[in-house]
Write a structure and sequence with these properties.
The structure holds 2 protein chains of 2 kinds. Chain A is of the alpha+beta class. Chain A has a single domain, classed as Beta-grasp domain (Ubiquitin-like (UB roll)). Chain A is built from 2 helices and 5 strands. A 5-stranded mixed sheet of chain A has the order 2-1-5-3-4. The N and C termini of chain A lie far apart (about 35 Å). By secondary structure, chain B is an all-beta fold. Chain B has a 4-stranded antiparallel sheet, with no helix packed on it. The longest helix of chain B has 4 residues. The radius of gyration of chain B is 20 Å and the shape is globular. The chains are: A alpha+beta, B mainly beta.
Amino acid sequence: MAQVIFTSHLKHVAPAEPVTGTGGTVGEVLADVFTRYPAVRGYVLDDQDRLRLHVAIFVDDLHVRRDALSHPMTPTSELHVLQALSGG
Amino acid sequence: MTQDLLYVSTRKGLMMYERNGAGWKLGDIAFRGQPVTMALPSKDGRTVFAALNLGHFGVKLHRTDDAGKTWTELQPPRFPKQPPSPKFPPDPNDPPPTPSSEPKGPSVSAIWAMAWGGPAGHVWAGTTPGGLFHTTDNGVTWRLVESLWDNPERLRWMGGGTVEPALHSISVDPRDHNRVAVAVSCGGVWRTSDSGKTWTIGSNGMINDYMPPNLQGDPVTQDPHLVVQSPSSPEVFWCQHHNGIFHCADDLKTWKRIVGAPVSSFGFAVAVHPRDGNTAWFVPADKDQTRMPVDGKIVVNRTRDGGKTFDVLRKGLPQENAYDLVWRHGLAVNRDGTLLAMGSSTGGLWVSDNEGDAWTNLSAHLPPIHAVCFA
């Protein structure tokens, strides 16, 4: 299963240690994680379930900028959820 | 002795000041390091809502029921998903999104107003982009007031200071909590008499000088920076508008521009005396191109006669080299009119216990102050 690592800025709502998630895309893996950590969802997605403008997604060291939630994941992928510096 | 409580919403946390007779002191700081845009305290200060606007992670809402000892995070107001709305997670069998198929539905980008709604647990919240939300369970669940959002005139609203329209003023009528007035930059003033089922425009008479001549009097695109309702004379409203001070004495039928305010008639904040609708305070700033104190001197304008004359109050306020701007929620009066507070964009905080005749500086070094309010 893919590994998901949240920024420490989200430690009050997100798991502090890497967690695993299942799915073939970033969106599916995050959805799986959100079922166990529902409080983090609103910090990553906006009202329309879009990725928030100032949240950055890295998959296997690639900064996924467009259609990030549709980006493919493999069972060995590592997904980082970070604050984008654009947000201040 | 009763305790005075002052809530200062800043870029770096909610600063809670208290006065017990020995003077004001800073008590707890909630949400240290996080931008707080708005606080809404109950009369006794036990329940307080705090709206946050995290730079990366969006708008958050918290509530305490023990005067700030502990806070509970609530689901903040959210716009319903609107088509074309993405599936979450995306269906890998769907074609990739194109510019025309990308979701364009709204998402709350700030909470700009909060007001108690009458019955226990009822609260109104105003947001960017231009949404009004209502809760009847103390903020656990919020409902978009769709009658205002779906009003076709809303499509003519414009941003003002923000990219998107901002609903920043909510006045719940002390005679009847079903009567609510809201104001939007730039969307004028709107009034419901049936708790949000139907709306009528309430900004006739306002004038936007910067608009094309034929649209300057258009009530739907006015830029009221803040609107307040007199608690003691509820037919009276005051507005600090982008183009001056406006006064209404007929329950939102017509507004009249007040001419002759000293120093400047431009500004953002306004407060009305809770026991005298003819007394109101304004914080003038240099014209909209510069937005700083005129000649570097911070002053407060006070009228006691419905805008016929003004006192310029400056005792205790910086009178040279000041760049403080008082944003629209940066001026507040307490429930009986005995205390005023004022907070600035550069972290200056002042209080007055003589209706503005003289001010005491509580700090010159706070983070930028978005809002001040008393319990």
